[in-house]
Amino acid sequence: MSYSPRTKAGCLITLLIVFSLGVGFTLGIIVSKGIQKKKEDPAFWKQQAMKHLEKLHPAEAQRPRLEAHTDKAVAELTELREEGIRQVWEIVTRAAQDIEKELTPEQKEVFEKIRPKPPAGKAP
Q1: Cα Rg for the chain, rounded, in angstroms?
Q2: Residues 70 and 107 placed together within one structural domain of the fold
Q3: What Cα–Cα distance (Å) separates residue 5 from each residue in 9, 19, 89?
Q4: Is the pLDDT of residue 113 over 70?
Q5: Alpha carbons 22 and 33: distance in angstroms, whole number
Q6: Does the reported pTM lie above 0.70?
Q7: Same domain flag for 22 and 42
Q8: Residue 7, C-beta contacts closer than 8 angstroms, at least 6 positions apart
Q9: Residue 48 shares a structural domain with residue 76
Q10: What secondary structure letter does DSSP report for 55?
Q11: What is the C-alpha to C-alpha distance for residues 110 and 104, in angstroms, rounded to an integer?
């Protein structure tokens, strides 16, 4: 069974396109996760806020005061975020305990395997 050169070229081009799409999709996911992780960093928040404030063309005397206000806001936001995460896991833990009370012993074994677990260091 012999294929014409045109068919072979078409197959190769199709394979190249599929491979390129797969690689592009994978790299896009990796980059997206990296960007998302960076956005969770309070130092990034401060950097972005200061960059945004530069559009105001602040005087040299204003910069330290603006930075102090930004530092305070970032600290408050970080505390608020941590408190929010803590509250979420308190609710999830309480709901899991309530659900566990309703289960049979066999169901409890399965539930222990699928029970939501807080990320390391985020336990209530």
Answers
A1: 26
A2: yes
A3: 6, 21, 62
A4: yes
A5: 17
A6: no
A7: no
A8: none
A9: yes
A10: G
A11: 10
